């Protein structure tokens, strides 16, 4: 089997970490777990192998939810439970962008001033994603800002940074430009009917300063973007919360949804039922090679303190599709560090779930 190299996308406040509404109906067919008598003892829990992640799902059900639908079989665990999504939520922003391109609201070839993108960048809060995106796109910078204040960037390339490097400024830029109704409509088009637009920048800014109104992080993000004096002095004289408070903060105030919510979006992309804009969504998501027997694979992941999330869609030339979503939260600093150090093992489990018929019954035993 050809195994793709998968790159993680992030939403991280690295300076704060020692290491670095349920849906009405399930998005998948009812799972058919193996009878209890047919289930062996689960593997030992751990972060360094795919089997270890299966063991974690058995050992820590309060922290893990997943949906797997291969077309031939399906399994779900706690799929309707509301959980943190981290950057996995950005697939909704991508859908909103693609729909806006399809109806002529946005031009993918528009040259956007880099400074309009830059205003949504909070240095030190994104794990280096923004600067990595500038470097990939050939935009000279000093590690914080572009060297040419008059530089422009193609809008479609900006959006690619949201997907590939997981730049946090792009989704907030799109939210500001398109509006919350466009984001809700994009989610609804994919079957997610109770979507709450998040702010990626505001989420991280709110973690830096516990004195702000955390119930209005979008106002915080916009002030940071457009008030230069506020931006320059933000969080200079506050003490960030301790580890326990940070984990509780992200669990409550970060982007949220259910595994079913994300699975609906990925299924609409995979089977084409999304309609307008689906080709652009696929083009952006499916930038890495696919494992056999599929010919296309799209994904968006996310991580923030205590949280690790993934959403995948797979397509084959024969019309076969698969969807895999996995949400983990409640990780302390040590476990979060171990999960990130062994990211490939977790991602391999999710690819195997879509491609190896033996994996779904094993997941059914721990669901």
UniProtKB/TrEMBL annotation:
Q: InterPro entries attached here?
A: Beta-lactam/transpept-like, Beta-lactam_cat, Beta-lactam_class-A
Q: Which GO terms describe its molecular function?
A: beta-lactamase activity
One Pfam family cited in the UniProt record for this chain: Beta-lactamase2
Sorted keywords for this record are: Signal
Q: Where is this region: Disordered?
A: 25-45
Q: Which segments constitute the Beta-lactamase class A catalytic domain?
A: 69-195
Extent of the signal sequence: 1-29
Q: Which GO terms describe its biological process?
A: beta-lactam antibiotic catabolic process; response to antibiotic
Protein name, please?
A: Beta-lactamase enzyme family protein
What is the species of this protein? Rhodococcoides kroppenstedtii
């Amino acid at each position: 089997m050809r195994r793709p190299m998968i790159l993680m996308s992030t939403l991280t406040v690295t300076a704060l970490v020692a290491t670095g509404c349920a849906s009405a109906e399930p998005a998948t067919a009812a799972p058919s777990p193996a009878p209890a008598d047919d289930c062996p003892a689960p593997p030992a829990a751990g972060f360094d192998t795919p089997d270890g992640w299966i063991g974690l799902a058995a050992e820590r059900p309060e922290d893990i939810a997943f949906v797997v639908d291969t077309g031939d079989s399906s399994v779900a665990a706690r799929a309707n439970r509301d959980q943190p999504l981290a950057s996995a939520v950005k697939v909704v922003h991508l859908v909103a962008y693609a729909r806006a391109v399809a109806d002529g609201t946005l031009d993918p070839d528009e040259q956007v001033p880099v400074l309009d993108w830059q205003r949504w960048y909070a240095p030190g809060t994104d794990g280096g994603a923004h600067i990595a995106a500038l470097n990939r796109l050939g935009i000279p910078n000093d590690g914080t800002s572009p060297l040419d204040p008059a530089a422009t960037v193609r809008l479609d390339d900006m959006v690619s940074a949201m997907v590939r490097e997981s730049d946090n400024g792009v989704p907030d830029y799109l939210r500001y430009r398109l509006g919350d109704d466009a984001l809700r409509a994009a989610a609804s088009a994919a079957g997610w009917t109770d979507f709450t637009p998040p702010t990626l920048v505001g989420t991280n800014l709110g973690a830096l300063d516990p004195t702000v109104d955390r119930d209005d992080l979008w106002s915080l993000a916009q002030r940071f973007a457009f008030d230069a004096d506020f931006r320059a002095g933000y969080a200079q004289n506050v003490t960030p919360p301790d580890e326990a408070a940070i984990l509780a903060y992200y669990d409550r105030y970060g982007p949220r949804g259910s595994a079913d919510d994300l699975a609906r979006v990925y299924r609409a992309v995979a089977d084409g039922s999304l309609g307008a804009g689906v080709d652009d969504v696929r083009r952006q998501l499916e930038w890495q090679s696919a494992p056999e027997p599929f010919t296309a694979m799209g994904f968006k992941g996310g991580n923030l303190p205590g949280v690790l999330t993934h959403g995948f869609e797979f397509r084959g030339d024969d019309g076969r599709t698969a969807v895999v979503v996995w949400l983990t939260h409640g990780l302390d600093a040590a476990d979060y560090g171990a999960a990130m150090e062994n990211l490939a093992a977790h991602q391999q489990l999710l690819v195997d779930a879509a491609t190896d018929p033996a994996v779904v019954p094993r997941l059914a035993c721990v669901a």
